[in-house]
Amino acid sequence: xxxxxxxxxxxxxxxxxxxxxxxxxxxxxxxxxxxxxxxxxxxxxxxxxxxxxxxxxxxxxxxxxxxxxxxxxxxxxxxxxxxxxxxxxxxxxxxxxxxxxxxxxxxxxxxxxxxxxxxxxxxxxxxxxxxxxxxxxxxxxxxxxxxxxxxxxxxxxxxxxxxxxxxxxxxxxxxxxxxxxxxxxxxxxxxxxxxxxxxxxxxxxxxxxxxxxxxxxxxxxxxxxxxxxxxxxxxxxxxxxxxxxxxxxxxxxxxxxxxxxxxxxxxxxxxxxxxxxxxxxxxxxxxxxxxxxxxxxxxxxxxxxxxxxxxxxxxxxxxxxxxxxxxxxxxxxxxxxxxxxxxxxxxxxxxxxxxxxxxxxxxxxxxxxxxxxxxxxxxxxxxxxxxxxxxxxxxxxxxxx
Length: 401
Ligand SMILES: Cc1ncc(COP(=O)(O)O)c(C=O)c1O
Prior knowledge:
Blueprint (H helix, E strand, L loop, with lengths): L2 H5 L4 H5 L4 H14 L5 E2 L11 H12 L12 H15 L8 E4 L2 H12 L5 E6 L4 H8 L3 E6 L10 H7 L4 E7 L11 H13 L3 E5 L20 H5 L1 E6 L12 E4 L2 H14 L5 H12 L3 H23 L13 E2 L10 E2 L2 E2 L3 H12 L1 E2 L1 E2 L9 E4 L4 H15 L1
The structure holds pyridoxal-5'-phosphate.
Pyridoxal-5'-phosphate (PLP) binds next to helix 6.
């Protein structure tokens, strides 16, 4: 059977779906590592720390206590309570347990949110560069992603003017992600204020992905759009999760806080598609949320050191410039100064060329910015040791020459 004939069986949604560029680069790096190459990966979107012990202990206790069955769809009452408390502290907006839904990962929370809010043909504004999954999830909901380019010289923040200019009668939702994957930048609180007013003026909805809100460095401050006004509170779905804050990516735990009717819609979608997040993960997350945040403070302190280090190392490389990341664990350097240079026998014309040659000749894995809407950038994850960051940049320096 020809591959064209074979794929005719697949749904239009699948045929139109773009595979994740970050996971593709990760796979390429892992394949080379399996062949014995000493790869330094700066491509993964997860903390390199182990999940803190008290969280793991709670999971073991849940297994021993026989917490083996299905739970309530959107999470156990203890978990919903703990999430509501954390969301209230995080956003400054009061959330009750019936406004919360826990799901297997923030990614699935976002998917369900898009399904709950978007109709065929609705427009969703997504500031770009952006995380690769947003446009795909929007399309899966039948909606039209409208990517609004932000500027490097404005630290990739969505400006109120750019938002206002992108709104059409079809716009229903604004997606915000601050701190951002891939840029590592935040939207300043005064912009969030102005953006919230525009959202209210045009009667839009907001989906605010705040999954990196506990990883903010220096003087930078995070403000949730839900806190701007009563309208914003009543028309925002805040998305968060345990993956990045508590180094729990593999456990799969995400959540939303939303007006009751939207939370119920999301829970209904979940009931028909995956029942509930893993019962053991739920117990672990209760321990994470109700326990001491010292472990988070420690991980953040290490990320802050790495942020300073990678910022300096990248700016020391000829042809590369990088603004200082404010949050998450990504740097998004501009490499247009390398275009036209020959490295490892390749004339570099774009970030994809550079990432390919860096992986093959220097054994350093990074993700080309084109995948995120950053045509001259690389996404570098600094969720790895300071030693690895130094060695990776030493190899890149040698490669660039
Ligand atoms: C911006 C952003 N949102 C959401 C997620 C989802 O994370 P998870 O599904 O592990 O909760 C990620 C993961 O990489 C992310 O970078």
